Backbone:
């Protein structure tokens, strides 16, 4: 019985209109049926939108380590100003401890410096970054060659424009899309 169900499932997949290979079309829906280009100009505008969205994603990825180092990662002084890690005492007398104890010590000191506004802004930024990334992924998953090339072109252009902002930072290098 399960074989019949599996074969029926495969038959349904074969009958579906979803493309499993890349194709050329200027009338492919993007994100919903309401966003279906009907003219060449609308298709070009959709591709330009995807290029801009990919550039925005690369700019966000380049800004993340800068925001992390300047706004989100620092401790707060008595007047609310940010204090660099070294001055806040996160690294003082910690290197002589065993790794597990060192980690607990750093986590404890950072937890004491936890701030609602910092965590809210970091979480909001991550949500925006994930949203842009998933929208680009959905565009590529349409399997439309034009959309795919627009996303790749936007990623290239974004890296070309803002890639030097955080090129030496490991946070930037860990997020490739």
Residues:
């Amino acid at each position: 019985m399960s074989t019949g169900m599996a074969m029926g499932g495969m038959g349904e997949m074969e009958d579906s209109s979803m493309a499993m290979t890349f194709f050329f079309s200027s009338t492919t829906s993007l994100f919903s049926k309401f966003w279906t280009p009907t003219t060449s100009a609308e298709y070009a505008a959709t591709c330009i939108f995807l290029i801009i969205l990919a550039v925005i994603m690369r700019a966000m990825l380049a800004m993340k380590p800068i925001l992390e180092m300047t706004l989100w990662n620092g401790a707060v002084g008595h007047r609310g100003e940010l204090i660099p890690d070294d001055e806040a005492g996160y690294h003082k007398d910690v290197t002589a401890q065993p790794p597990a104890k060192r980690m607990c010590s750093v986590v404890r000191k950072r937890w004491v410096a936890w701030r609602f506004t910092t965590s809210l802004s970091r979480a909001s930024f991550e949500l925006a970054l994930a949203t842009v990334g998933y929208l680009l992924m959905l565009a590529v998953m349409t399997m439309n060659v034009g959309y795919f090339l627009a996303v790749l072109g936007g990623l290239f252009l974004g890296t070309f424009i803002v890639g030097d902002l955080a090129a030496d930072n490991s946070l930037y290098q860990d997020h490739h899309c």
Observations:
- The first helix runs from residue 2 to 15.
- The two ends are 42 Å apart (CA to CA).
